[in-house]
Structures
1.
Amino acid sequence: MSVRLVFVCIAVALWAGGCGLGDSQMHLRTAVDAQGDALSSCYAGALARNPQAGGTVHARLHVDGSDGRLREVQIVRSDISDDAFHGCFTEALQQVRLSEAPPANLDVEYTFELAPTG
C-alpha cells in the first residue's frame, strides 16, 4: 500500500533577536523531506493497524543553532490516535539534521497531511 505524505506549512520563530533566517528554512525543509521514507513507513504502520487512519499531524520542532540538530520534537495535535505511530514519527523526525546550522535556535511548527493512496 502506498501512502501520501504532504508537508503543508512551516512557521518559524527565531529565539535570538536580530538574526536573519538565511537559508535555514530551506535547509530544514530539505532535511525533513529526506526523512520522507521513514515518515511514510511510520504512517504505513498506522494504516496497517487502522486502514481509516489519516488527517493532519501538527508537530513542533526545536532546532539547535549550534549544530543544526533537532533536539526536541513534540506532536502538538494529531488526527491519528495511535501511540506507536506518534513514537515512530517523532523518532524519524529526531534524525533530522540541517546541512548548515541556523544562526540561532529555531522553533518550527510543521503540519503534515497524511492520507492513504490507491
Note: The radius of gyration is 14 Å.
2.
Amino acid sequence: MLCSCNTSDIAINDGQVSKVSISPDGRAIAAAIDDWGTNEDDPTIVRWWNWNGKDGIWHVPSYRVGAFGWAADGSLLVGGQRQSRTPVVPWWRIGSAGKVLAACEGLPKGPGLDQANDPKYKNQPISVGEYMSRGIASIAELTGGQIVTGGVDQTLAVWEGCSPTWLHAQTCCRAEHAITVTARGMDFETSGEGIYQDKNDGYYEDMGPRRWSPSPWKAVSIQAPAVPAGTKLRANGADCMATMDASGHMAVVGAHPWTASIETDKTDVWKEWVSLAASRDCKVIAVANRHRIVKVTSP
C-alpha cells in the first residue's frame, strides 16, 4: 500500500467479486460475489459488512448483479442482469437484515424487442449470437423517491414503485451499450446513451452526457467531466469523482482532492482491479479485485 491514508482489507475466499459498493456515509461495504457454474439457479450472492453495524448475505434470484445503489432510507438497491434473448430489467430493494423490501421487473416493448414472443422469431432456432447481456448497468434513487435505471442494452427508465416509464424504448436493446445514471436531486444525468443508426449493419451514435428533468422527462446536453487519461475505473460521488488507472493509482477530484496508490500485480489476472466505488463526499473509496476488497479513507 503506497499512501498515507487509512486502509482495511476484506479477503474473499469463496467465489469471485464482480461489483463493489460503499454506502453514502462511507461506513458500509456491499459486494456481489459470483459462484461460477456451481449453482445455475442461484449464481450470485450479495454480502455486506458493517451495514448498520452488521454483516450479512442475500442470494440473488437467477441473476447476476449489474449495479448497486443506496436509497435515502438506508436500503440497498440491487440491479440484475443476465444473458437473454428478450430484454428484461430487474431490481430489488434490500433492507440491512437481508429482507427484500421490493422486487421489481420491467419488460421494455418496442419494434423487435420482444423476440421470445414475436411470431417472426418464435419458431426460429436461437443462435448463440442472439443472446446478449440484458438488465441493469446502473441504478440510483432521486430526491422524489423515484428509482432510475440505466441498462446494459440502452434501456433507460424511471420507476414509480415498480411501474417504469421507458424514456427511449424505441431505440433500446439492440446492442450491448451500457447507460450510466447519476442522481442529481430531482434530476439525473446520463452517459453512454446512443441513437441507433440502421445502416452499415447498425451502430450507435453517441449522444454525449445529458441531464434529465421531470414532468415530463426531458433531456438537455451537458459538458462531459474531465476524466484523467488512462482511467480504467470510475465512481461518482455527489459533487466529486474518483478514478483509478491500471497501475492502481487513484485520484479524487472535487472539493477535497486527494490521491492514493495500491500495489497492483499486472501479471496475475485475478489481482486486476474490477470495481471501484466512492462515498457521497469521495472521502472513502472501495476497490475490489476478484478475491480482495480494499477500503481506503483519505488522509
Note: The chain has two domains: 1-62+230-299, 64-224.
